[in-house]
Amino acid sequence: MHFVGLVAGLVALYAGAEWLVRGAARLASALGVRPLVIGLTVVGFATSMPEVVVSGLAAARGQTDTALGNIVGSCIANSGLILALAALLSPMKFDLALLKREGPIMVGVSMAVWGLAWTERYTRWQGALLLAGLVVFVRFSLRWARQETPAVEAEYKRFETEHHLLSRHPHVRQVVLIVAGLGLLVAGGHLLVVSAVALARRWGVAEIVIAATLVAVGTSLPELATSIVAAARRQTDICVGNIVGSNIFNLLGVLGVSAALHPIPVAAAVRNFEVAWMLGFAAATALVLRSGHRVSRPEGGLLLAAYAVFLFFLFR
Q1: Residue 267: which CATH number?
Q2: Which residue in 67, 2, 65 sits closest to 206, CA to CA?
Q3: How many domains would you assign to the chain?
């Protein structure tokens, strides 16, 4: 029954994120927001809402290992699983100039989170600091977005048109979708947290291990779906931008919210393994992004192999 609850929670999270993305994106479009800005902010944040809800609920319940494991595991899965699978499906050449800045920012934020882990606890004031960093990041991202080429803008508009995310008229239906999506996210997040903790105890596995694998991959399903579809359609700027942006949002936004709700202890073993692996994947992703504005199949294969090694040592 706990496994059924886990699956049901994942389904509710995915459906909730989909409804939230559609409602929020259409409402923003009706209010005159540019497709590129919608893609970088509204869609990007909405696809990361499962991580916010699951880690936030877990932190509020005092299940801090689940909260931290989901955040770190999602970042690792974004690079080692989602980006890898997308590159294996279709080698990606991207033109999004914003990625030149976001890659180093992702590494810098990952280093900051790893550095804060040496204090043995993510405190409330550190959470507030991370959230302030998110506000600064979004502000500069919107400024940098104005410098993107018309081709990038057109790619985002085409993607959002194909997914019916644009609308000229605000409708009550969009507000209903947003509210319903948030409701499903909360319900699914609660079910997922309860089921994951119960399964971890039943199987005799540490909560952070379950959170960094099953829970993290589950909450990353919206990013996985968006990235795979974008890669298949060769809309590579959206695919890569979604992954890098999600990692930054996870560390600044999700960890910030979770730590602000409840201080999160960081054991030395977690700092030296899970958090260190997250930093390593961030650095590897940034290096891949700087290698000629493309992610090749061999690079995707290496990232996937590294993810397999991570799983092997995690469960060993």
Answers
A1: 1.20.1420.30
A2: 65
A3: 1
* Inter-residue contact 157 to 166 (CB < 8 Å): yes
Distance CA 71, CA 117 (A): 14
Burial of 280 (0-12, 13-18, 19+ CB in 10 A): middle
Q: Write out the two tokens for 207.
A: 């909560």
Q: What is the DSSP letter of 120?
A: T
Q: What is the pLDDT of residue 121?
A: 94
Tens of pLDDT, residue by residue over 175-185, are 888 888 888 88
Query: How far is residue 150's CA from residue 145's CA, in Å, rounded to a whole number?
Result: 11
Taking the C-alpha atoms of 54, 156, 226 and 53 in order, what is their torsion angle to the nearest 10 degrees?
10
Which residues does 267 contact at the CB level (< 8 Å), separation at least 6?
120
Cα separation, 67 vs 231, whole angstroms: 30
Domain around 132: 2-315
Instruction: Return d(Cα 275, Cα 117) in angstroms, integer.
Output: 8
Distance in angstroms (rounded) separating the CA atoms of residues 291 and 191: 42
Angle between helices 236-249 and 98-117 (to 10 degrees): 20
Q: How far apart are CA 78 and CA 225, in angstroms?
A: 12
Between CA 178 and CA 181 the distance in angstroms is 5
pLDDT attached to residue 247: 92
Encode pLDDT of 33-55 as tens digits.
Answer: 778 787 777 777 888 888 898 99
Distance in angstroms (rounded) separating the CA atoms of residues 309 and 60: 32
- Residues of the chain with pLDDT > 90, as a percent, come to 35
| β-bridge mates for residue 264, sequence order | 122
> Which among 173, 188, 247, 243 is positioned nearest to 14, based on CA atoms?
188
